[in-house]
Specification:
single chain; 66% helix; 0% strand
Length: 107
């Protein structure tokens, strides 16, 4: 597993989330397989979905709430202490990035 600090992990997951929504938009507004970059967009979206599918439920909640569907900033306070949340968030980000980079293959 690639070791990165919190700032690097956060930046990488934000970039993946941005790609996901941008490519979803491009796919929705493209004209099918003949469109420029259609396959690249679809493969990237599928790879992100696959990487996400390997996460545990609590890790999915963290990635979704923090990066994809950005809930209220304190959504986690009823479930985790700050230290526990930060540990779980770093682990979830690290796993998500590694699954994405490895093409969805469990690391």
């Amino acid at each position: 597993m690639i070791k990165k600090n919190h700032t690097q992990l956060t930046s990488d997951v934000k970039e993946i989330a941005t790609l996901y929504f941008y490519y979803q938009y491009k796919l929705k507004h493209s004209h099918g397989l003949g469109s420029t970059n259609y396959e690249e967009y679809q493969q990237t979206v599928d790879r992100i979905d696959l990487a996400f599918s390997y996460l545990e439920e609590d890790e999915k909640d963290i990635i979704n709430n923090e990066f994809f569907y950005q809930s209220s900033p304190d959504w986690w306070e009823l479930t985790y202490s700050k230290a526990e949340f930060n540990r779980k968030k770093d682990l979830a980000m690290s796993k998500f990035i590694n699954y994405f980079v490895s093409g969805g293959m469990a690391c």
